[in-house]
Amino acid sequence: MVVEDEVLIALDLVDMLQSEGAAIVAETDSVDEALKILSDSMTIDCVLLDFNLKGESAAPVARHLMSAGTPFLILTAYDASLLPDEFRACEIVQKPCDHARLIKSISRLVVR
Question: pLDDT tier at 61 (50, 70, 90 boundaries)?
């Protein structure tokens, strides 16, 4: 699942993931929609989560993912030290990121 509010970045992420053989079960650009999708009964192996969605913190989505045990990584253009303490131990990838690093991070999450 891709949760990203920047259209070009979202398209790039989806294209990169699909070229690596991933199936994108959902994508959205808002906290409310992400929470709605996650409350459905579909199986999601991993979520790429932009932490700032249209100026809104994605913390509620991250908390939901943590409580559900769903692997996710945080994508952010901000310094990781600006994230709330509860998320600093999460896998964090700085934007812009290169595809090889992102694939490595996703691979670490999915094989856990």
Answer: very high
Sequence-distant (6+) residues with CB within 8 A of 52 are 5, 58, 76, 77, 78
Can you tell me the distance from the alpha carbon of 54 to that of 57, in angstroms, rounded to the nearest whole number?
A: 8
What is the pTM assigned to this prediction?
0.92
CATH number at residue 31: 3.40.50.2300
**Percentage of residues in the chain having pLDDT higher than 90:** 72
**DSSP codes joined into one string, 79-105:** -GGGS-GGGTTSEEEESS--HHHHHHH
Number of domains comprising the chain: 1
Does the structure show a pLDDT above 80 at 41?
no
State the Cα–Cα distance between residues 57 and 5, nearest whole angstrom.
12
